[in-house]
Each structure stands twice: as structure tokens, then as C-alpha cells.
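Entry for the shared binder. Reason: the reviewer on the internal report wants the predicted structure included alongside the sequence.
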Amino acid sequence: MMLPLPGRRRALAALALLAIAAMIGAAPSTAWAQDPRITAAQVAARDWLALSDAGDVQGSYAAASPKFQATMTPQQWADASTKARAPYGAVRQRTLAATQAATQVPNLPDGAYVLLMYRTNFANRDAAETITMERGADGAWRLVGYSIR
């Protein structure tokens, strides 16, 4: 039995949607996988942020890259970190908004970097946080830059 033309179109459209849904469901999960280096940088950034959120300025300084540490002393970092973060209050929610891998970052030598941008809801106001992670010679990702606005 032939369906009338409008019914046949609906049936074909439904069949096409089912086929697309089946293809999506059958797609290998690796098609959506992220580069493991990016994932490692994101994990290291979250770990560093947890130290910073807890007010552990010594820990956040120690977890930063040697390049970061070369720009200031631990006491200078403690002063700068406290001054920058205090007006915002405690973190309520942080959402990763963007991640970008780069080999060139302004004011840094060529290397392996990942820039992470977060939208953060603090107790006193919302802010954008930008973190630059650097992959060290040992393969570990460490903070080399942080800004909050």
C-alpha cells in the first residue's frame, strides 16, 4: 500500500530521524574524546583553584610553575592574591567557559600552554577568571598565570 504523498514524507522524515539517532548512538565514544593533555591541564587548574579558594596562598604558590614563582616572592603572592580575591568573597559556583591550547602566549617563551576561562559566581559578585597552565619538562601542568575580573 502506498501512503499518500504527505504521509509518505512524514514516514520518510521519521525514518531519517531514526537513522540519524541510531548513527549518533552507535558512534564510537572516542569521537567526542578530548585531548588527554587538555584534560590533564584542566585537572591541574582545578587543583590549583581549590588551593586558592581555600585561601592556601602558600600551597597555591608552591603548585605554580617556576616561571610564575620567578616573578614574585611567596609574600608578594600572598599580598597580591589576598588583595585580588578578598572583594569577591567565597566561590559559589565556577563554570569552565572555554579552553584553548597554545604554543605561544604573550610575554612567555614558546611552549605548551593551555588557557582556561571560567565564569565564577562569588558570594559578592560574578567574575571572569583566566588561568594559564604550562606543561613542564616533567610533563606536569602548573599555573603560570592567573587573572580575575
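Summary line for the report: The helical segments are 5-26, 36-53, 57-62, 66-71, 74-85.
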